[in-house]
Design goal:
Blueprint lengths: L3 H11 L5 H19 L3 H6 L7 H17 L13 H27 L4 E4 L2 E4 H5 L4 H12 L7 H18 L9 H12 L2 E4 L2 E4 L2 H21 L24 E2 L4 H7 L3 H4 L7 H12 L3 H5 L6 E4 L2 E6 L14 E4 L2 H5 L2 H8 L30 H8 L2 E2 L4 E2 L2 H5 L7 E2 L4 H12 L4 H8 L6 H8 L10 H8 L14 H4 L11
Parallel strand pairs: 5-11
Antiparallel strand pairs: 1-2, 3-4, 6-7, 7-8, 9-10
Helix pairs in contact: 1-5, 1-7, 2-4, 4-5, 7-8, 8-9, 8-10, 13-19, 19-20, 20-22
């Protein structure tokens, strides 16, 4: 993960890189990287999401690493298989951090000696008015101001930088005082034509992605107006700037129907114990009865399953540096009696056995094996998502996910994937009369979410004081016995050796 210091210096340096020879070298190396992955072992291809839309993000990250290496003349040290790129990148980052600390110290010293004048936007440094402020300076300053925010992940930083750098590539790294309506129109036209590489073909990015770009640029210019006298207008903060999305229901995620739940829980996974890893048995059940997100389930550690006052519950927390939660606050979710009946607590107790050695990189004992941490995007949900949601196989012209093999059909305009269990649980709680405040406490929705906004707009208050007993009584009302009638207990269909990591 990059520090906020490193992020600032990276983008300040990258925008100064004008050597065409260096740019060509990076493009050449990227092509070599794609050729290497195309001919590599399938396991290595899966590790970088080869053949999926997400591979573009991996490729962008590799390009970012190569750019940093180029700044420190380390490209020639890269081996043919890119096996030492992380080592070289870490070396460059350490050097960048040292440089950044020196730059920030200089900025702080200069700030104490510069006189201030007044204008309509408040105090402004005279040096800011006289300086040649570039678009790249806006980006570097925006990241420096906001990069230390707890809600900013590395993914957020990279997204902000990528969006604004597209503006710079389109209109050039010009003086901000020169940015005008013509540049704005040029950028919006380029954005409307932007494509991404999917399945070996260039396909237009979605209108949602285009609007995300505009939102980022609007925010950066919005802050710049406050801090710099040279920025007098935010061209991105005006009506009809964003692209209209006429297909409002496209990819709208919906809950699973009862007949679809029957299909999902009547496969050999649940009737005969045919699965590679225990998470393939437990994750869908946990999502159905707790409303937990995929990564919340995948990052669970053995100690996150707790018993208090004879009530078992799951603790979603941030007690480990590799954990991520969508909201800052952790939460507890009582465990449904059906999960206990199927052997979940027995499974947890088995995983506490010293023989079980499912450890993460920090040495914590994980609840499920077979879930590796995603080094690019963070989190542990990658393998679960691939298994359940699958991808489109160009050879067979079919989708390969568990849900597809179970017979859950895809519907135009609607999206059904692992996250649909969360919607199914929320709908189930509503159907059995659980109040919104308790339902939101269980599923972990916040006021910032769509449902939270609707709840707030209805004049209600999202209460945080729901205790364990009340939540337990509420969650026990969920009943999918009919849909899960074919599910056999875990230890009836699973031999214990699946739980142990083989010793050498």
């Amino acid at each position: 993960m990059l520090s906020s210091y490193a992020v600032e210096i990276i983008y300040a340096y990258r925008n100064q890189m004008t050597d065409k020879t260096t740019v060509r070298n990076i493009r050449r190396l990227l092509k070599r990287y794609r050729d290497h992955i195309a001919s590599s072992h399938p396991i290595e291809q899966k590790a970088v999401l080869w053949g999926t839309p997400q591979f573009e993000e991996v490729e962008e990250y590799i390009e970012h690493q190569l750019s940093v290496l180029a700044e420190f003349d380390l490209l020639d040290h890269l081996d043919n298989e890119f096996s030492n790129i992380d080592m070289l990148y870490d070396k460059a980052i350490k050097a960048q951090k040292r440089n950044t600390e020196n730059i920030i110290d200089k900025k702080l010293n200069d700030a104490t000696s510069e006189p201030l004048i007044e204008n309509n936007s408040g105090p402004v440094k005279t040096s800011q008015i006289e300086s040649t402020l570039l678009l790249s300076d806006l980006l570097a300053d925006y990241i420096a101001r906001n990069g230390s925010n707890e809600e900013w992940t590395q993914k957020t930083r990279d997204k902000v930088a990528s969006h604004f750098e597209f503006l710079i590539r389109t209109v050039g790294d010009i003086h901000v005082a020169l940015f005008n309506e013509e540049h704005f129109s040029m950028y919006r036209g380029a954005l409307s034509q932007r494509t991404r590489r999917i399945g070996g073909k260039n396909k237009p990015i979605s209108k949602t992605t285009k609007n995300d770009h505009i939102t980022t640029v609007k925010a950066i210019f919005g802050e710049a107006i406050i801090h710099y006298a040279e920025v007098t207008k935010n061209y991105f903060d005006q009506p009809n700037v964003k692209f209209k999305n006429t297909k409002t229901t496209k990819n709208k995620r919906v809950p699973f129907r009862n007949d679809e739940l029957e299909l999902l829980f009547s496969t050999p996974t649940y009737t005969e114990g045919i699965f590679r890893h225990p998470y393939e048995y437990w994750a869908p059940l946990l999502a159905l009865f707790t409303g937990s997100r995929a990564n919340e389930i995948c990052q669970l550690q053995v100690d996150d399953i707790v018993c208090e006052d004879d009530v078992y519950y799951i603790s979603h927390n941030l007690n480990s540096a590799d954990k991520h939660l969508k909201t800052k606050e952790g939460r507890i979710v009582p465990i449904h009696k059906k999960l206990i009946e199927l052997g979940f607590i027995e499974y947890v107790n088995k995983m506490k056995n010293p023989k079980c050695r499912v450890l993460n990189r920090l040495g914590h004992k994980m609840l499920f094996k077979g879930l590796s941490e995603d080094k690019v995007r963070g989190g542990y949900q990658k393998n679960l998502s691939r298994w359940f949601n699958g991808v489109f196989d160009n050879k067979t012209k079919a989708h390969t996910g568990y849900k597809d093999l179970a017979g859950v059909l895809r519907e135009d305009g609607f999206k059904k994937d692992f996250h649909s269990f969360r919607h199914t649980c929320a709908t189930g709680l509503e159907n059995v009369g659980v109040s919104d405040s308790i339902g939101y406490k269980i599923t972990g929705h916040s006021i910032g979410s769509t449902e939270g906004i609707q709840l707030s707009s209805a004049g209600k208050i999202y209460r945080h004081g729901a205790d364990l007993e009340v939540m337990n009584d509420s969650i026990q009302l969920l009943n999918w016995n009919e849909q899960l009638c074919d599910v056999r207990p875990f230890f009836e269909v699973c031999i214990e050796k699946r739980l142990w990591k083989k010793r050498k």
